[in-house]
Amino acid sequence: MAAELVLPGGASRKVAVFLAEAVPGRDGGERLSDLLNGAGPRFIPAHDADTDAMVFVHRENLALARVGAEHEPHMVDPFNLPTEHEVEVKLVDGQVLHGIIAYVLPEAHSRLTDYLNSAPPFFPLLEEGGQYVVLLNKDHVAYVETLRR
Length: 149
What we know:
Elements: E1 2-6, E2 12-17, H1 32-37, E3 43-48, E4 54-58, E5 64-68, E6 83-91, E7 96-103, H2 112-118, E8 122-127, E9 132-137, E10 141-146
Antiparallel strand pairs: 1-2, 1-5, 2-3, 3-4, 5-9, 6-7, 6-10, 7-8, 8-9
């Protein structure tokens, strides 16, 4: 699956990431978010599209990964509408992203801070325009600011 992996400081690589065809407990194949948030290996093998080389990326040092939205469909709960926040996210290295954070949590714990504190290590941001999902590494986020819609 094609992805853009971005390191702290903004250096990026366009790669093909190798994902499993099936995962336990869910229909369909593995998603990049499964790989980044799972308990698997620290180094993710990928094929660099520009250099035609195999690269092994240390997932904890990734600032973010960007994929087409079709590769990271939102988990839809047919009984609950998601809470959505339009946000600006500033990374520790100064990179700034804009988009929407959407989630479903119990009403008593549905604040954005509740989600950010309970979200997995990489949480999704739907970039403006909805074409891409950015999987943000919480360890590289300086702040999340809500914007008015």
